[in-house]
Amino acid sequence: MLQRGKTQSGTWPLMKRLVKAYLRPHRKTFIAAMLFMGVAAAMRGVFAHTMQLVVDGMTQLRGVPYMAEISVFIVCIFVVRGLMVALHTLALNRVGQRIVSTVQQQMCAHLLGADLAFFHDNASGTLVSRVTNDVAIMRMAVNECLLNSFRGGLELASLIAVMFYQDWRLSLIVVLVFPVSALYVGRMSKRIRRVAANTQSATGDLSARLNQIFQGIRQVKSYGNEGLEVERVRDLTQTIFKLSIKSVRIGALTGPVMEVLSSVVVASLIFYGYGQIVAHTASEGDLVAFITSFLLAYEPMKRMGRVSAQLQAGLAAAERVFTLLDVHPKIVDASGARPLDVADYTIGIENIVFAYADGTQALDHLSITVPHGKTVAIVGSSGAGKSTVINLIPRFYDVQSGRVTIGGADIRDVPLASLRGHIGLVSQETALFDDTVRANIAYGKPGASQEEIEQAAIGAFADSFIHELPQGYDTQVGEHGVKLSGGQRQRIAIARAMLRNAPILLLDEATSALDNESERAVQVALKKLQQGRTTIVVAHRLSTIVDADAIVVLDRGRVVEQGAHADLLARGGAYARLYGMQAGVAA
Question: pLDDT-derived band of residue 587, with 50, 70 and 90 as boundaries?
Answer without folding.
Answer: very low
